[in-house]
Specification:
Length: about 325
Amino acid sequence: MKSNSQNYILVEDLLEYLKTKLKTGVRLVSGGRGLKNKIRTFALNRPGITLSGFFNDFSNERVQLFGRGEFNYLLDMKPARLKEILDKFFRYKVPCCIFTNDNNPGPEFLEYSNKKCIPVIITRLFTDETENILKDYLQERLAQKKQLHGVMVEVFGIGILILGKSGVGKSESALELVTRGHRLIADDTVIINKIGGSSLIAEGHELIKYYLEIRGIGIVDIKSLFGVGAVREKKTVDLVVILEDWKKHKNYERIGLTRETYNVFGMNVPLLVIPVKPGRNIPVIIETVAKNMRLEQMGEHTASILNTKLLNMMKENVNEK
């Protein structure tokens, strides 16, 4: 498992993205010498309470987003008070400040930003729109990443990461699943992104996305062969399936009352180990696993229901005696 996370992006990268994304209505108005400032968190800060003079919990490490409320608050300040607040505000190392609604903060603010090398960016968008765009971009860029050797598919809406040693049949199983109407996300190199601290999102490497390696045939392009409906760019990792050669003396799960987990970035994902041997139809088994998981998500746990029935039957037999 290879880790490939980047723990910061530069303000100039964010500015370039906004210009590309929005085409017009984004401009840098001051603090250009701070474009190499580093952004290390996807969280944003609305500095309303800070502008009132409360700096105890100032999240200065975040991008500072000034909406209409913060802008008008600055406008209403008397010159002496404005200078006092700005003097305190710019003592902190802030990555950058972004003003929405095409609001320009005024010469005093821009003078401080130039002096302290803190870029000020203005966008024409409303605050909510700007906030959503910033969060999506920063979460994706600052996500923790891992590369795994495996296959990622979507089966009946369930994102399944298939792992196992080389040659065990991961890609062949994925090909069969695609022919049965399911979707491929990635083969060989699966990139796992931890988004927002609570989601694991899998995607393929840009260079080999939607290609599948089948021994004896070579590389096939799933998107070209089966159409755009047979592929998907990203999917949450809902289940990990490990394929392994059947081990005669190993006790495999037969009831399903217990569930192992697979740990990624400290998050536990449900895990199933499926033994492979001639005569076992692995794609059908994976389909069944996906359907069963959907049932569990709807509150129907087959093994638990059967276990309850057996216990009740045993209790009735005891009472009859």
